[in-house]
Amino acid sequence: MSLSHIDSSNKAAMVDVSGKAITERIATAEALVTVNDAVAAQFDGSDLVSKKGPVFQTAILAGVMGAKQTSNLIPLCHPLPLDKVGIDITFENNTAIIRCTAKTTGKTGVEMEALTGASIAALTLHDMCKALDPAIVISQVRLLEKTGGKSDYRA
């Protein structure tokens, strides 16, 4: 098995998906954002509230926007028509758990869109809370599952 984005000349290349079947493809990714007690104290039961506004709601919007821009950010990603991007954020023990699910019907998967959405949401949360905690930790950005295409995956 070889890397998918390296051609026979050992050069970076976009994968040719022209021969692939069109199927429904879904991927879910996760990112964890750990904050200090000062930030956690801003949690009102459904969102973190900062001087910049509702943190989770802003992070959700940013994550959706990020997922939609994945092919502009990652050079060899195919531009995809996304049928849906959903982001859910829960907060437990000073950690925001961000989950992004992306869905398309096409010839290539949406793993990178889900990972980008979760990452951009995490970065937005960091940006909105950094005044209270400059040491925020973003960790464990990972693919949880993908379905559709040649093979499925579950972490």
What can you tell me about this protein's structure?
The chain is built from 4 helices and 7 strands, in the order βαββααββαββ. It is α+β, with helices and mostly antiparallel strands and 155 residues long. The protein has one domain: Alpha-Beta Plaits (2-Layer Sandwich). Helix 2 runs antiparallel to helix 4. The longest helix is centred in the last third of the chain and has 19 residues. It catalyses: (8S)-3',8-cyclo-7,8-dihydroguanosine 5'-triphosphate = cyclic pyranopterin phosphate + diphosphate. It holds the Pfam family MoaC.
Keywords:
alpha+beta; five-stranded antiparallel sheet; two-stranded antiparallel ribbon; 4 helices; 7 strands
User: How would you describe the shape?
Assistant: elongated
CATH architecture group name: 2-Layer Sandwich
The CATH superfamily appears as Molybdopterin cofactor biosynthesis C (MoaC) domain
Order of strands across the widest beta sheet?
4-5-1-6-7
Which class best fits the helix and strand makeup? alpha+beta
Query: Could you say how many structural domains there are in total?
Result: 1
What composes the largest sheet? 5 strands, antiparallel
Q: What's the alpha carbon Rg, rounded to whole Å?
A: 17 Å
Q: Briefly, what CATH class? A: Alpha Beta
DSSP summary: helix tally: 4
Uncertain segments? none
By CATH, the topology is Alpha-Beta Plaits
Q: What's the order of the H and E elements?
A: EHEEHHEEHEE
Strand tally is: 7
Mean pLDDT: 93
| Share in β-strands | 25-35%
Instruction: Tell me the helix content.
Output: 25-40%
Q: State the end-to-end distance.
A: 20 Å
EC number: 4.6.1.17
Keywords: Lyase, Molybdenum cofactor biosynthesis
GO molecular function, one term: cyclic pyranopterin monophosphate synthase activity
Function: Catalyzes the conversion of (8S)-3',8-cyclo-7,8-dihydroguanosine 5'-triphosphate to cyclic pyranopterin monophosphate (cPMP).
